[in-house]
Design goal:
This protein is mainly α. It is built from 3 helices and no strands.
Amino acid sequence: MLQERSSEWPKRWEEKGRQEGRQEGREEGRREAAHNMLLRTQFDDTTIAEIVGLEVSEISALRAELKH
């Protein structure tokens, strides 16, 4: 019984790693889309946040980074 469970652990860890990687990829894609919108549009932070699915504070931080 313990041996069966322990043989499943690596599979679970691997799947969890894949899920986390996919989530990180989606987040990076959202940030990249927001970055491009900040550069190419006159949209305000709230509008961009609604479109890409990020928090307004994240958009504001990206905007501040672009000004430096």
